[in-house]
Amino acid sequence: MIELRELTKRYGDQVAVDGLSVRVQPGVVTGFLGPNGSGKSTTMRMILGLDAPDHGEALIGGVRYPELNWPLKTAGALLEAGAFHPGRSARAHLAALAASNDIPASRVERVLRIVGLSDAATRRAGTYSLGMRQRLGVAVALLGDPGVLLLDEPVNGLDPEGIRWIRDLLRGLAAEGRTVFVSSHLIAEMALTPTGWWSSGAAGCWPRQPSPNSPPAKTAWRTRSSGSPRRPPTIAE
Ligand SMILES: Nc1ncnc2c1ncn2[C@@H]1O[C@H](COP(=O)(O)OP(=O)(O)OP(=O)(O)O)[C@@H](O)[C@H]1O
Prior knowledge:
- By secondary structure, the chain is of the alpha/beta class.
- The protein has one domain (2-236): Rossmann fold (3-Layer(aba) Sandwich).
- It is built from seven helices and nine strands; from the N terminus they run E-E-E-H-E-H-E-H-H-H-E-H-E-H-E-E.
- It has helices spanning 40-47, 71-74, 90-100, 106-115, 130-142, 160-175, 187-192, and strands at 2-11, 14-24, 29-33, 55-60, 75-78, 148-152, 179-184, 219-220, 234-236.
- The strands form two sheets. The chain has a six-stranded mixed sheet with strand order 5-6-7-3-9-8. Strands 2-1-4 form a three-stranded antiparallel sheet, with helices on one face.
- Strand 6 (148-152), helix 6 (160-175) and strand 7 form a beta-alpha-beta unit.
- It is globular, with a radius of gyration of 17 Å.
- The relative contact order is 0.21.
């Protein structure tokens, strides 16, 4: 489970994330919806210890990410496609990560198969299309077989078949009991991918039992100071 408590981030005078509190439960795909610039990536980065909150905290299984013993085995993340050495093949990139994170080498071939890159595994990542780089990013996230997955805009760059693939993959990972937290600025995508829905409350947000017939409800979470012209992100599960 991911737990955010009063998570707040300011850049100068600008409040990017404002008192965000939520529990992201395992077993369902939880969508994090909001327009560009509403604080989704900042929230993800704070969960992963890449940005320090000005107030509040983000916990993964009760522990802050920087304090995890083997982070890749606990929480896998896709933040930005293309963050790979362009001269290195997908297989070499994954093998290096596996070796430095106490992950069995057998996981490399396994995740290459899962993301559909086995046939392109020896090609340099710099020659990959955006969709292929996105798949390699997903492979990195899955490498440690983590119980928690965070994916920032995972459908970016994917073609229609790729989008169907990632929807099925995320649902499958959640069905295995993992916590799957996915951001998007696309309302339609969030309506199709998440496996359940959230009920809302002023002081907290708790998932009801997922119902396949229920429409996704969106619960507003403040991630900006009042007066901002932009809408805050919403959470749909
Ligand atoms: N390092 C930074 N320095 C200054 N401002 C920042 C920084 N990172 C983010 N911001 C600002 O914080 C706000 C939230 O940005 P963020 O990238 O988290 O939004 P987002 O919802 O992920 O947007 P997008 O959908 O475009 O990725 C934006 O106004 C952005 O300009």
